[in-house]
Structure prediction request, 329 residues.
Amino acid sequence: MRDNSSATTLIRPVVPSRQSVGLWWGLLGVAAFSFTVPFTKVAVASLSPLFIGSGRAVVAAALAAFALALTRQRLPRGTQWVRLAVVAAGIVVGFPLLTSFALTTTPASHGAVVIALLPAATATAAVLRGRERPRLAFWLITGAGALAAIGFASMQSGGFGQLHWADVLLLGAVVAAAIGYSEGGLLARELGAWQTVSWALVLASPLMVFLTAVSVAQQPPSGTPLQWASFAYLGVVSMFLGFFAWYRGLAIGPMAQVSQIQLIQPVLSICWAGLLLGEALTWTTVIGGIAVILCAGAAVRVRVRVRLKPAPAQRADRHATKHLEPVKD
Prediction:
């Protein structure tokens, strides 16, 4: 019995190791997403925003269809298709197209600050979708974050109450992604994490192929090697492989900790905009970014602390991990 007890003791250190693996996968996914805004800004210099927003989804859908066929995933059933349509509308259609058009006229660092509202927006969408009743502090902090993002955008546009149309598009992109993330997070418990994203891409592919064809007919794509490389990154990594790492991290868990890594994404995006695009970082950008990130982090932490329970989260993690087994990273 002592040997068995000793063996049990030796297994205990594996738990923190598994948690650290989840955090590293989550960090890898966030690092992949952090290049999305700067590389979109590079691509829209010559390529049509409609082509970028739709074409990258077509590239990702082709990869998703191949992965689903290779691993012989079962087809979604019944209302799962409707829910997949919601996910597709948010993260496949809405967010890519809206950000592509917005970044034709606004700096990447500016876009990163507005998009920093995404974690709090996702938490809000999850609260509404899950019919939770969080404390008043959650709504106050989330509202403060929204006001900080809108205030920053207004100041950059020439004064309070003077939002540029690009800011409206960015805020719309945040709402679209938040809805897609929250619904996708719930659906991933049934279909699996990466499978949910892949089915959403495949479902949206007819529309995205049509939009790509329209954009090519209107403006034949022509760009530099760097712009085409940026487009390739958006299609292969931002729309596909990045989700593999991100949802793998969430599946391994703990979800409450891994999900908060997303808060560093706007910081990384702003850094890449300065290093790769040579954009100057003004005090307004720095202060606005810090305010939005702090509010988003506080809102996520309030919701996690009040509503998430360890046992169901662990069961969801194990279920999601089981769905990920067919694909070896």
